Amino acid sequence: MTIHQSGLARDVPFDTAKLDRLMEEAGIDVLLATSKHNTQYLLGGYRFIFFSAMDAIGHSRYLPVVAYEKGRPEHSIFIGNRMEGGEHENHPFWTPSVQAATWTSHEAARLAVEHVRKLGLHNARIGFEPAFLPVDAYRIIVDGLPDATMVGATGMMERMRAVKTLGELKKLRHASEMITDSMQATVAAAREGSTKTEIIERLRQEETKRGLQFEYCLLTLGSSHNRAASDQAWKPGEVLSIDSGGNHQGYIGDLCRMGILGEPDAELEDLLGHVDAVQQAAFAKVKAGARGGDLIEAGQSALKSSPVAGYTDFFAHGMGLITHEAPFLMTNHPVTYDGVDAERPLEAGMVISVETTMLHPKRGFIKLEDTLAITETGYEMYGDRGRGWNRGGTA
C-alpha cells in the first residue's frame, strides 16, 4: 500500500489489510508497538543502531513507538529518540508523522497520548505489548487516556510476523548460512589446547567479519554438558558442540553443529546418526497445510524408538526477528509458552528451528539444530552445511 503526504509517495512495508484484520479480531482500534522487534517490523526493517545493544540511558531508557490506527495508515506516527532525526533525513520513515523528540520512556508515552488524542480516539481500545512497555510509560498512557481500554497486542503481532516475506526469508537464509560458515571456520581453526573461551571469541570474530551481529555461543567440549565459557581445553578425540545465534539486519540465525578433534569412532558416527534420524523424521512432515503438531509427533515417535531416547530430547520452534516466535508448536519445552499452533496448519513462509539434543553420559553433548523455511511442497533448509562431524585443527 502507498500513502501520500505533501506530494511524496511512501510504501507501507507490511500488509495493512492483514494487520487491520488481526486488529479487528483482537478488538484493537489503535496499536502502540514499543518492542524493538515489532517497531522494526512495522518500520520495514529499521532499527536505531545507537540503542541496538542496550536500551538504558541516564535515568531512563530508549522507547520507540509506532502508532497505527486500524484502517487508517495515514494516521501512523513513529516516535523516536532525538538523534533519529538524522536517520529520517537520510532515509525517511514511511509514517506520515515522525517525532524524533525523546530521551526517556515517559517522554515517548506522552507523545503517544498526544497523538491518540489528536485523532479523537479518547475511548479507543489501545493495543500494547505488556512485556515491552515500562511501568512509567504505561501509567502515563492510562492516566492520559482514562476512557480508553488497554488490550494486549503481543499475540496479534506474533500472528502478523509468522509468515515471512521474500525479503525476510532472504535475510534469514543469509544469517543461517553465515553462521554455518563461521562455525566451520571456527572448528577448523581450533586445535588441541584451545579453550572454550578462545573458541567462542573466534566464533564472534568469524560472525562479525561476515557482517552478522554476534548474539551468543553455547559450547561444550568432551564429556561435559556445560555450555558456558571457561578455561576448559579441547583434547584429542573429544567432541565439540557449537550452538550459536547471530542476526543479519535483525533476523536471527540459530544453528548447532558438531566438531571432533581427530576422527570420529564408530560409536560417535552412530550417535550423530541417531540424532539426524530424529531430525529427518520431523522434516518429513514439514510442508504448507500440514498440521503443526505432526512434525512434533513424528520427531517424538522417532526418538521414542531410538536407542538413545533415555538421554535425548526433541524440540521445534518458530523463529524470525526473535528466536522463539510463531508458530508455537510445543508447550513449556523448554521456553515457557503454550503450543497454540500445534493444531493449526503450517503456512508457506513460516520458518522453524528443529533441534535434537543428546546428553550422552560418556561421550558428551551431541546436537543438531536446523532452520527450515516452509514451502508449499515441503521446506528449504537454510545453512545446511556441516551437519556431520567437522574436524578440528585443519585450518
From TrEMBL:
InterPro entries in the record: Creatin/AminoP/Spt16_N, Creatinase/aminopeptidase-like, Creatinase_N, Pept_M24, Peptidase_M24B
Alphabetized Pfam families for the sequence: Creatinase_N, Peptidase_M24
Superkingdom in the source lineage: Bacteria
Annotated Peptidase M24 domain residues: 171-376
Residue ranges of domain Creatinase N-terminal in the record: 17-163
Identification of the protein by name: Xaa-Pro peptidase family protein
Source organism per UniProt: Aquibium pacificus
